Amino acid sequence: MSATSPFGRTVCAMVTPFTPEGALDLDGAQRLADRLVGEGRCDGLVLSGTTGESPTTSDEEKTALVAAVAEAVGGRARITAGVGSSDTRHTVALARAAQRAGAHGVLVVTPYYSRPPQEDVAAHFTAVADAVDVPVMLYDIPGRTGTRIEPDTMLALAEHPRIAGVKDCAYDLLGSSKVIARTDLLYFSGSEELNLPLRAVGGHGYVSTVANVAGPLLADALDAHDRGDTAEATALHQRVLPLVELMMASSLPGTVTAKALLNALGLTAGPVRPPLRPADEARTSALLAAYRSAVPA
């Protein structure tokens, strides 16, 4: 576990396992979390994020998931609970429930669909941070929410004592570099192809969907960079890129591709919930081939 981060450093955006009938699989979640933290080399887990199918899990399921995973691995990894919604009051309630259930931190996405102005975005995050006693990670993903957390807004939010990190999916290295240089916010790449570039300009780590299946490879690349072996870091980064592209830049969401691979490997995942649909046999075969090329047997 990272001693310098309230969220970890090599963090997996964990899928939410379901039974074949589509119910929440808490035993499966504990087994998967144990595997990710152990052989997967993840020192942090994000639960109920985009990859965790938060739009289709109930509040009660989200809280139960946090409690189960915290029981399984909370002493070995940092547990960050996704609590974002488009409703500030609902987000505050989810954040408080996650803290009571054992989360070490909360991940809060920009309110979506309503597209609030920047001062309202800042007020939303401040309300959540004021309501809990655990660190808050902001989730900047304008491609999904429709609203950016602008760099100047980040600079203002960084003054809050509990706003400690950012999951960065904004694809704006200049803006991110500006905030990193002027604040103590811990920046986490939310886009695997940017893990090394963001680290090179002062980012802290990553929150990765691909880590559900290839955590050690991603961690090795970051470790190589940190010890100054940039050639090895680049080689590892390039080796995983075909898998990253198939999992994250194809026509399927990362949740679907991650579960397809986990299931194909005989690991805990289960189905996705509608409106998502499972990957077909051809896509699953391609994912498995890319995985086997990237990850040593």
Automatic annotation (TrEMBL):
Organism listed in the record: Streptomyces mashuensis
Lineage start: Bacteria, Bacillati, Actinomycetota, Actinomycetes, Kitasatosporales
Pathway terms, separated by semicolons: Amino-acid biosynthesis; L-lysine biosynthesis via DAP pathway; (S)-tetrahydrodipicolinate from L-aspartate: step 3/4
EC number: 4.3.3.7
InterPro entries, A to Z: Aldolase_TIM, DapA, DapA-like, Schiff_base-form_aldolases_AS, Schiff_base-form_aldolases_CS
Pfam family, one: DHDPS
Function, in words: Catalyzes the condensation of (S)-aspartate-beta-semialdehyde [(S)-ASA] and pyruvate to 4-hydroxy-tetrahydrodipicolinate (HTPA).
Site (Part of a proton relay during catalysis): T50, Y113
Alphabetized GO MF terms: 4-hydroxy-tetrahydrodipicolinate synthase activity
Family (UniProt): Belongs to the DapA family.
UniProt: pyruvate binding residues: T51, V207
Subunit structure: Homotetramer; dimer of dimers.
Alphabetized Gene3D superfamilies for the sequence: Aldolase class I
Keyword Translocase: no
One GO biological process term: diaminopimelate biosynthetic process
This protein's encoding gene: dapA1
Name of the molecule in the record: 4-hydroxy-tetrahydrodipicolinate synthase
